[in-house]
């Protein structure tokens, strides 16, 4: 059985990995995070392209991969065209869930919570223009939540006060909040608790999982491989730098995410 490879700069992509694994529990998974270069929003485009392409190409040479998920908004907007030229297998990217948020909003006023890089990119405005032209959109860019999500995985306490301050621009104004960074769904319970019942919080994880299922079914129908067979191999993770923080999350990755081993990407 081939593997589904899920890639991100840090642990944020675990939110996408969880959704895919929930929908397709019998697949074999490789989760890859480039923690040496985290966060990606601060990298120049050419550096990001070199790192993502190098890591993906190396692991695809070492493993039989059926499908790649780039579970990072920043990397998706920059690297997807290059990866799709280099590989014949399906490659799925992520975009903020602006379309479903616009449909769900009763006030026709939505919020987009993302990294500063995602908030400022033209593609985000294009999504708003295409899918939410009748909505008032409040954009909030924050890197703080990225670090909060990483800290949560490491078992550190999350400051509800800081989180409340970040969410302040949405209060009384919006009724549907888009989590536009894959790190942020790891804090979804805390965000929903602070916002309260009058707000709907959406992310793109479920939509990505559905798309992955559709693509794998298409491959199976043309006879490439039986993707319904259960994998008996343990799911694994790769990091680009084996730092002290990795030791802190190894147990969490194994128990909560069923990633039984962490290896270092040989590209570095």
Automatic annotation (TrEMBL):
What this chain does, per the entry, is described as: Provides the (R)-glutamate required for cell wall biosynthesis.
Concerning its family, UniProt says:
Belongs to the aspartate/glutamate racemases family.
Entry's EC annotation: 5.1.1.3
Under which main EC class is this enzyme filed? isomerase
The lineage, from the top, is: Bacteria, Pseudomonadati, Pseudomonadota, Gammaproteobacteria, Vibrionales
Q: Where is the active site?
A: 72 (proton donor/acceptor), 181 (proton donor/acceptor)
Per UniProt, substrate binds at: 8-9, 40-41, 73-74, 182-183
According to UniProt, the name of this protein is Glutamate racemase
Q: Which GO terms describe its biological process?
A: cell wall organization; peptidoglycan biosynthetic process; regulation of cell shape
Provide any one GO MF term from the record: glutamate racemase activity
Pfam short name (any one): Asp_Glu_race
**Which keywords accompany this UniProt record?**
Cell shape, Cell wall biogenesis/degradation, Isomerase, Peptidoglycan synthesis
User: Which pathway does it operate in?
Assistant: Cell wall biogenesis; peptidoglycan biosynthesis
Q: Which reaction does it catalyse?
A: L-glutamate = D-glutamate
Which InterPro entries does the UniProt entry name for this protein? Answer: Asp/Glu/hydantoin_racemase, Asp/Glu_race, Asp/Glu_racemase_AS_1, Asp/Glu_racemase_AS_2, Glu_race
